Amino acid sequence: MSSTQKKHSKAKGVLIALLILTVCAAGVIIYIRMHPKKKEAEPIPTVSLDKAKVGDIVTFGTYESDNNTENGEEPIYWDVMAEEDGKLLLATHFGIDCLQYNHYPQDITWEQCTLREWLNHDFYEKQFTDEEREHIQLSHLVNLDNTRWGTDGGADTDDRIFLFSVAELTALDGKATDEADPSRELSPTPYAVERHAWYSGLEGFEDNCIFWWTRSPGPSANSVSCVMGDGVIMDGDQACYVSHDHYAVRPVMWITR
Predict the structure, then answer these.
(1) In angstroms, rounded to a whole number, what is the distance separating the alpha carbons of residues 224 and 190?
(2) Hey, CA dihedral for 158, 159, 164, 168, is it positive or negative?
(3) I need a labelling partner for 104 at 20 to 30 A (CA). Which of 31, 118, 213, 222 fits?
(4) pTM of the model
(5) Tens digits of per-residue pLDDT, 122-161?
(6) Rounded to whole angstroms, how far apart are CA atoms 65 and 4?
């Protein structure tokens, strides 16, 4: 091989090596973007249920959280969102799982969806003790139509475990749906991450802020309004289709002390 051929061969080898490094680097970047950053778990300050007030965090029930099934289920952390007539409104502090709103891509309302069935049967019956279930109240829910598109919200329902509606969220925080609101930002448990909860990846926001379901209809009958990683509620032009499998679940309930 001539010296010229050797130089060309060496240059070709260097070019191939650079291409491989570029592809690998791109793969690492994609992986990082698709997987929330893992952070060291910090102790979460909680109070007992009998002393809880709005803004506190309590534990109630159990669910797989740390993605280690060998050590059993962990306590569920709940934010105390409101108090009324001696009852507390609780919403999970984390997105606890990643489930479809409905198993099939069809026009459907909260009343008929499979996520409502799961929350009020599997979740309610398996994740709480008999004594804890005595505290969980049956709540009458008004399921309003989509205010921008008029999409049918379906019949009112009576549920023990449910999801926030768009109207309930905006009443709690006083913000419009299109306003970024830190109080609506939600982090996932390691288990929810393993189940492919989709985080925002938006510039300036923590990578672990995930998208999560409400029970309110979206712009079409086969979609639902969802909360984005920055707290903006997608209830208008963007649709979260009911059978999508990367939105997190944030259960809500009214309980007595």
Answers:
(1) 25
(2) positive
(3) 31
(4) 0.82
(5) 999 999 999 999 999 999 999 999 999 999 999 999 999 9
(6) 62
